[in-house]
Amino acid sequence: MSRFFLTQLSRLTRVSKQPSLAYHGCRFSTSSRRPLMSTAGFTETQLTVREAVSQVCAKFPNTYWQERDQNEQDPQEFHAALAKDGWLGIALPESLGGAGLGISEATMMMQTIAESGAGMAGAQSIHANVYATQPLAKFGSTQQLESTIPNIISGKWRVCFGVTEPNAGLDTLRLSTRADKQPDGSYKVTGQKIWITCAQVASKMILLARTTPLEEVKKPSEGLSLFCIDLDRSQPGLEMRRIKKMGGRAVDANEVFFDNYAIPADSLIGVEGQGFKIILHGMNAERCLLAGEALGLGYAALGKATTYARERNVFQRPIGQNQGVAHPLADAYMRLEAAKLATYHAARLYDSSRTDGSIRQDAVGVACNSAKYLAAEAAFAACERAVLTHGGMGYAVEFDVERYFRECLVPRIAPVSREMILNFISEKVLDLPRSY
User: Fold this and answer.
1) CATH of 3-139, one of 3.10.350.10, 1.10.540.10, 3.40.50.800, 1.10.10.10
2) Is this prediction's pTM over 0.70?
3) What angle do CA 393, 395, 399 make, to 5 degrees?
4) What CATH class does 276-428 carry?
5) What percentage of the chain carries pLDDT values higher than 90?
6) What class does CATH assign to 157-275?
7) Given this model, what pLDDT does residue 9 score?
């Protein structure tokens, strides 16, 4: 059992001797109401993660997230609180100061954060710290790991992920940002990235750029390289522009422009030209994390809706007594529970594939993409029905469901669209002709 896990158990034991702050599905409460999400089948470690992270989240009520959303203010206190208890290194090696746990536990952490009321904004404030560091931890040099990972885990440095481009979108192999090698071995980066979350507050970027022109490689997947770079705002050649967006306003999204931005030779992660293969290591992990975040958001919305349906009286009875209200919520619950099973199956498969050679990576990809799709759709249904259950008050900021609804579109779009997942399943599982 890891030292990190023993520390969390010790902390939970101390807390349990104090007045109870039990976590019940989507809210912190001293009531005895049964948790909304069934926790049957989870491991002791996953449930410990859920309880411990819940106690951190309890310090940040919905009003905190309402204010951060309205003011577009980074939740730095929340990030610091998670860093203080070591959660930013949940899936990183113990040798580097991490917890040494798996993506299964990291997914549970991300779900718990979103479910607490923090929503996608809370989850996205640490999202890249968890998954974008996976390729670095696996392929980085000793010097990179020792100088970077501990500072990320401690919260000193925050991380963003620089892959998406405005003219390439999901066609990653045709991105055009270049990293041109210089005579001294350093590189100069030129190009544009878009939808880069937390770039305004990040110290480091995991950057994918082309080091060999597309026309000079045998396959489009070749010639891309991965870098861990400093975001030095005082250095020439770097510009950021914040994007105004619909939801998750507490975390910034950006266009990032590079113009001969100099980075040292030791920024390169792994072998030059093998960046696409390296980055694949983190993509399936990200799908699991996104699925967990979507689940958390859905359960949070459903919890708000069912509470309102029990307490809101119209025509001299609770509106939840009407099947027109109750049945859509029951359906949303079953969708979330089904997506939950798919999500944790995918995360378990991802973790097991690290040591079990019989688990094929294409099977992991199918499971992770399917989980992300199903969780995103279940969250959307739950959030939409939560707004409709509240009626006019669903439009009011103080009831939170309008914020959840704005945020629930993110898992449907990113990091890969619903349509591209359907394309993937059609081709890889059903053996249908490729459509793109």
Assistant:
1) 1.10.540.10
2) yes
3) 60
4) mainly alpha
5) 90
6) mainly beta
7) 61
